Amino acid sequence: MKVKPNIFVLSVSIIVVLTFVFSSCAPKAAPVATTGTTMAEETTLETETTLTEQAVVLEVDNDGTLEWDPATVWQKEQFEKMYPNIKINFHETPYKVHQETLLRMASGAQEPYDVWQITDEWLPSVMKTDILMPIDQIWTEDKLALYADWEKKAILDKDGNKVLVPVFGCITVFMYNTELLQSAGFQEPPKTWDDIVLYAQKLTKPDENIWGFVDTEESINKFWHWLLQAGGKPFNEDWTAAFNSKAGVKALEFLVDNRNKYKVVPLGAVTWMDEDQQMLFISGKSAMCVTWAFTIDRAANSEESLVKDKFSVASFPEGPGKTNATVYEDNHYAIPKTIPKEKLDAALKWLDYVSSYEAQVGMLVHEPGNYAPVPKAYDEPEVKEKVPFADLLKVNVENAQNVVPPNMGEVATILIAEIQQALLGQKTAEQSLNDAATKINEVVKQ
Amino acid sequence: MLRKEANRNEIFLFASYSIANSSMLKRKNVFFAYVVTLPAIIFLLLVVGYPVFYLFQLAMSEARVEAGSLNLKWVGLENFRILFQDQYFLEALKHTLYIVVTSIPVSVILALVLALCLDKIRRGRGIMQTALLLPWMIAPALGAAMWRWLYNDQFGLIDYVLRLIGVIKQPILWLSDPNVAINSIVICDVWQYTPFCTIILFAGLQNIPTDLYDAAGIDGANALQVFWYVTLRLLKTQILFVLLIRTVFTLRIFDYVYTLTRGGPGRSTEVLATYLYTTAFSFAKFDYSATIAVILLLITSVVALGYVMLFRGVTEG
Amino acid sequence: MRVPSTQWRIKAEIGKFIIWTILVGYTFLALVPVLWTLSTSFKPRSETLEMPPSLIPHNFTLDNYVKVFQKTPILLSLRNSSIIVAGTLFLCLTLGLLAAYGLSKFFNFNSQKFFLYFALATRAVAPAALVVPFMIIGRRLHILDTFLILILADSYMWLPFLIWLMKGFIDVIPEELVDASKIDGCSNLGILRRVIIPLSIPGLVSVAILIFIDTWNELLFAMALAESISVKPITTTMTYFYTDIYTVYGWMTSAGIVGVIPAVIFMLFFQRYIVKGVIAGAVKG
Question: Which of A54, B203, C47, C57 has the most CB atoms less than 10 A away?
C-alpha cells in the first residue's frame, strides 16, 4: 500500500493553518475593569454607592461547580441588586484541587482571586502563610451576637484578628432508615450507644447487603464526633493531644467492636469515603449512620435516592459522655492581602452581605443541604418550612465544636492511618491512639 | 535542477571537508544534521531546564510562604537527611518499587502475547485493535473513579459477580485489606497501560519484513525458533522502549493510588507520588515535597540510564 | 516442509482457535470497566445505586447525555481538545521526525547515545513538578490560558520518546535505499520526503495515535493552565461532575463516554495505516 506523501503534506498543512487560526483567536485572561474615580484609601466600609463608580468585577472563588450551590447563586443575585456597580465572577474550583489552588495562590504561583473560599480542612495551611487580611470592621457587635460561640473563635487568626466570614457549614446528624427499623420491630430510634449495637445486630443481613450501622472515618471530624459524645476532647489548650484519654479509647473501641465483634459494619468501610457511606444509605442498604447533614437533602431529593420517604433524623443516641456535643465543619470566605486596592471595597461588601442574617437565612432556604452557624435562623418560619428537621439541626448547631488544629493536614493523615490500623485489628484501640498522640504532639509544635 | 543540487552538494562537501575528520558524523552534512536535530533538543532544554533547576533549589532550601510569595533559605542537604530517616518515605519507596516490579513484567508479557495474536489474524483485526485499546483511551482520572466503584465490596460489580458464580463466599476487600489493596492498584495499572505496550509492539512487528519469515521457513526452522531468533531479536528495541516508558510512568503513579485508597488502609499503599502530593498540598511543606520530587527524579534517571545502556548493548550485538 | 497437509491444517486451526480465545477473552475482561461506564451512562439516575448491580440497564435512557450537554460546555471543549491535540501532533511530529532522521542517519552511535540520554533525562521529571513553573512562565509571557501554552506543555511530554521511537523505526530502513536515491540526485530533504517518511508511516501513525490519546486525556496541565471555557479541553469537562463533593455517576459516565468517542474514531481511522509489508514492498519494487 502506497501512501502518497502529498496527502501527508496536505493534511499537515491544514492542521498547521487551523492551529494558528485558532490559537490567535484564543482569549487571553479577561481584562479587569477598575474603578477609575473612587480610591478607597482607608478600609472603612462605604454604605452608599456613588454613581461615578465604574463597574468592579469581583473574582470570587467557589468550591465545586455552581450546580450544587443554588444558595450562592441566589446570594449573588441579591447582592448585585443591592450594588449594581459590582459584578461577581465565580471561579468554580474543583473540590479535589481546591487546596492546591489556594496554596499556589498564597505562594504567588497563580494569579490570586479576590475572595477565597476556604474549608476547615485547608484552613491551617492557608493561615500559616499569613496571607489573610483582617476584616474586623465587618464584624459589628450585632452581627457577632448572631453567631454561635464557637464560630466567634473560628474566625480568628493567630493574632486575634477576625479574618474570616462563614459561608456555610457541615454538621453531623444521626439518620436512620424507618422502613428497615420498623420491619425489624423497632418503632423508636435508638437512644444510647448500647441501643445502637442492639438494633444493628438485629438489622444486619450480610447476604442481602443490609448493614445495621455504617460509619466511615474519611474525615477525622467523624472521630471527633464520637470522641466528644464519649465525653472526651480532641486537644488541650496548647494543641497537644487529648484524644488518647479513656473517653477516646471508649469511642474508638465502639467503632472497632462494631466492625470486628458485632459485625454490623461492612468490612470494606475502613477505606470508604464519606460519599460511599451516603451512597449505601440512600440505596436503602444501611439502617443507621452518623453522617453529614447534607445527606438529608441527598436522601430526600436526589434522583439516585431509593429512600426518599423512608428515612428520618433523630437526636444523637447518648454515649458515655451524656452530651449533645458534635462537630461542625466550616467553610469561610476570606480576602487575601494581595487584593488590588480598587477591589477591596467591593470584596468587603460581599463578605458583609454573605454574613448578614438575611443572607444566612436565604442560604438555608435555598440550599437545604447547607447549614448555618446562626442558631436564631432555624426559628424563622421559612426555614422551618423548607429545611427538614430544623429543630434538631438547631440543637446540633448550638452544641457543635469546631476542631481545627495547626498542621491539620498532617494531623489528620496520622490519626486516620492509626484509626484504620485499629479498625483492621492490627493494633488495639489504646495503642493506636497513643501512637497517634506521640506523633501528633511532635507535629503541632512545628 | 541537477545543476543546482550539484552546487549545493559541492558547498556542503566543501564546508564539511574541514571537519571531515570529525568522528561525530556518518555523513558529511554537518549543517543539515544539526539544523535538523537541534530544534527538538533546544525545545526540551528550554522547557525543562528552568523548572528542574528551581526544583533542586527548592529541595535544598527551607521554604516559607509569606503573603503572596515563597521565601527560600538555603539549607543544603538538610532536607535529604530528614527524608532518609522518614519512615513514611521509606515505606512509600518500598510500595512504589513493588508496584513497578509487579506491574511491568506482567503488562509487557501480556502485551507481547496480544501483539503476536493480533499479528496473526487477518479479518477483524481493526475492531480487535480498537477494542484492545479502549482501556487506555479512558482518562486515568475517570478510570480510577470507575474502578473504585467496581472494587467496592458492597455495591461493586466485581465482588457481586464473583459471589454470584460462587468463586468466593465473602466479598474480597479489594481496597480495604492491606495485603490486597496494593495488588488492586497493580491490576489497574496493568489494565490501563497494556494496550499502549501492545500497540507499540504490534507496530514493531509490522516493521519486520515478511521475507525474513519466509527465509527462516526455508531454512527449516520451526515456529518457536522463528519466534526466538527472528521476532524477538528484531523487537528488542521496541521491547526495551516499552519497558522504559512503563517504568518511567509507573514510578510516578498517582491517579489510581490517590483515588482508590488515598494511601491505603493504614498507609499501606502510599507511593512516592502521593506522598509528594500530600506533603506539598496537605501539609503545605513545599521544600520537603521538592526533596521527594528530586529523589524521584534521580531514581527515574538512574533507571532510564540503565535501560539505555541495555539498549546500547542490544543494538551493538 | 514435508508435513502432511491435514495435520498441518489441524494445527493451524487449533492455533487460530487459541489465538482468538486469548484475544476475545482478554478483551472482554479488560472491557468490563468500559462496559460498566457505558451501562451506567444509559441508566436513569434512580437505577444507579440499585443492588444487585446489573450490566444491562432496565430502563434505557438518554437523559444523562441530554443533561450533560445542557450543563457543560462539552461541544466547546471537544473543539478545544481537537485544537490542542492537532497543535501538539504538529509540533511533536515535526520536531521529532526531523530529529529522529538526523540522529539516525547522520550521527555516529556515540553521539546518538548522548542526545538520547539527554532527551530521556528531560522525561525523568514528573509533570507535577512542572506545573508551577509552567504557570509562572505562562504568566510572564502572557500566554496563560491560551492554546499555545497547553500545546507546549503537552508536547514536551512526548517529544523525547517520539524521537527515540522514530529513530528505531528509521534505523530499520536499509541504507541501500537511501544511497540509491542519493545517486538519483536527491537532497537530504528530498530523501526525507521521498524515502524516509513513506517507509516509516506505520511508526509515525502509531506514535501519532499514542500522542493523540495521551494528550486527549491529559488532565494535570489542563486543570492548572486553562481557565476560560473557550480554552478548557475535554478532560476538565469529563471530570466536571467527579470533582465535586459527591459524584452523580450517571452524568459523569456520560461525559466520559462523549469524551472517549473522538479518540475511538481517530483510532479506527488511522489504525489501518499500521500495516506490514510497506518496507518489503519498497525493497522488492
Answer: B203
Task: Outline where chain C has alpha helix (H).
Answer: 5-41, 63-71, 74-106, 109-123, 127-141, 147-171, 175-183, 188-191, 197-199, 201-216, 220-225, 234-238, 249-270, 278-284
Of A366, A385, A401, the residue that ends a domain is A401
Report DSSP state, residue C124.
T
Vertex B237 angle, CA B231 and B240, to 5° = 110
Chain A residue closest in CA terms to B270: A417
Q: Please indicate whether, in this complex, the C-beta atoms of B134 and C238 are within 8 angstroms of each other.
A: no
pLDDT tens per residue across span C204-220: 787 788 888 888 988 88
Identify the pLDDT of residue B106. Answer: 94
Helices B125-137, C201-216: axis angle to 10 degrees equals: 40
CATH number at residue A365: 3.40.190.10
**Minimal Cβ distance to A267: which of B70, B153, B262:** B153
User: pLDDT tens for residues C114-129?
Assistant: 777 777 777 778 787 7
- A: neighbours with 3+ CB pairs under 8 Å? B, C
Domain count, chain A: 2
Stated pTM of the model: 0.84
CATH number of C66-284: 1.10.3720.10
Q: How many helices (H) and strands (E) does chain A have?
A: 18, 9
Mutation choice for B interface testing from A271, A424, A432 by most B CBs within 10 A: A271
User: Which uninterrupted H or E stretch holds A326?
Assistant: strand A326-334
H/E element holding A334? Answer: strand A326-334
| A271: chain B residues, CB-CB within 8 Å | 175-176, 181, 261-262, 264-265
Q: Between A246 and B314, where is the model more confident? A: A246
d(CA A187, CA A182): 6
Q: To the nearest 10°, the Cα dihedral for B74, B80, B81, B83?
A: 130
Inter-chain touch B191–C33, beta carbons under 8 Å = yes
What pLDDT, on a 0 to 100 scale, did the predictor assign at position B28?
Answer: 55
Range of the domain at A369: 56-170+330-401
- Contact list in A for residue C244 (CB cut-off 8 A) is 64-65, 67-68, 94-95
- Within 8 A of C93 by CB-CB distance, chain A residues are 12
Collect all residues with Cβ–Cβ distance below 8 Å to A212 and sequence separation of at least 6: A199, A200, A201, A202, A203, A204, A264, A287, A288
Do residue B175 and residue A100 have CB atoms under 8 angstroms apart?
no
Q: Nearest-CA residue of chain B relative to A279?
A: B155
Q: Which amino acid is at A35?
A: T
Cβ-defined contact of A15 to C86 (cutoff 8 Å): yes
Closest alpha carbon within chain A to B284? A125
User: In residues, how long is chain B?
Assistant: 317
Chain A residues within an 8 Å CB radius of B153: 266-268
Q: What is the tens place of the pLDDT at every residue in A44-63?
A: 333 344 444 578 888 999 88
Q: How far is B176 from chain A (nearest CA, A)?
A: 5
| A312 and A423 share one domain | yes
Do A191 and A292 lie in a common domain?
A: yes
ipTM tops the 0.85 cut: no
Contacts of A59 (CB under 8 A, 6+ apart): A32, A89, A91, A113, A114, A115
Dihedral pair phi/psi, residue A372, rounded to 5°: -110, 140
Scanning every residue of chain A, which has its alpha carbon at the shortest distance from the alpha carbon of C202? A3
Express each pLDDT in A168-224 by its tens digit: 888 888 999 999 999 888 888 999 999 999 999 989 988 888 898 988 888 888 899
**Which residues of chain A make contact with B72, given a CB cutoff of 8 A?**
none
Domains of chain B: 2-59 (no CATH), 86-316 (1.10.3720.10)
CB-defined contacts A:C, below 8 A: 117
